Prior knowledge:
By secondary structure, this protein is α/β, with parallel strands linked by helices. The chain is built from 11 helices and 12 strands. The strands form 4 sheets. It has a 6-stranded parallel sheet, with helices on both faces.
Amino acid sequence: MKVLVTGVKGQLGFDVVNELEKRGHTAIGVDVDTMDITNPEQVESVIKANMPEAVIHCAAYTAVDLAEDNKELCDKINGEGTENIAKVCKEINAKLMYISTDYVFNGEGERPWEPDDKVTTPLNEYGYAKYLGEQAVQKYVKDFYIVRIAWVFGINGKNFVKTMVNLAKTHDTLNVVNDQLGNPTNAVDLAYHILKLAVSHDYGIYHCTGSGICSWYDFASEIIRLSGVDATVAPCTSEEYKAKHPESADRPKWSALDNRMLRCTVGNEVRDWKAALACFFEHWDGENGMK
């Protein structure tokens, strides 16, 4: 299968291209320097020049805190940019996989969110803009997958794991919220499972995250333990963190996603987040990426 992947320089796009090539597919990786998704003419030109059978859309504005003061840019990239891609996919009859987020939900749940749960009021601009992207995909594309992911970490790009390790090298104590719950997810696992989905004809909305639920505090504690850096992780509430960092965006307190639809389709479960995190440290050298 010939697949165009947006956001190839990001952590998920990087691993998706690697996984495609490993499986013998033709991967065309693009990023903002080769296809600015906010430029409809360029999107049309690049996609039509390559005529992929599928597009896996990983590119996004992901700076959650900065998005609060950059609403127009965030909406333009995550909403209008996705719409530009969706329109061309419709025109050339290519299937589209859109990577969305747990942040489309409002965080008030008591059970893991399921794909058919109604999205009502995302708590932050990032979540709202990604939901705009979901709406664009469903409006223009018949053969689509919307895959919501969460708390992603990978060898390429920035993520919470790398941030915690780097902060631990210069701070004796890290204060991390313990009242926001979700599913840490290795980008390698994501790439593997979403590509199993992408070769199917089982279109629709899916969730794909690591197995197990934890808090950011639990996640950070395991990160520091595995890193071997001498630092302490201390729990705090979202309110305490917000008081010290008033510029930070609101984040959902209940962000766990249910993978049941994915399991029913691809036939197996994503591995436990702790095992996936340990595997990450086995392959990350802390400086230059892969060991």
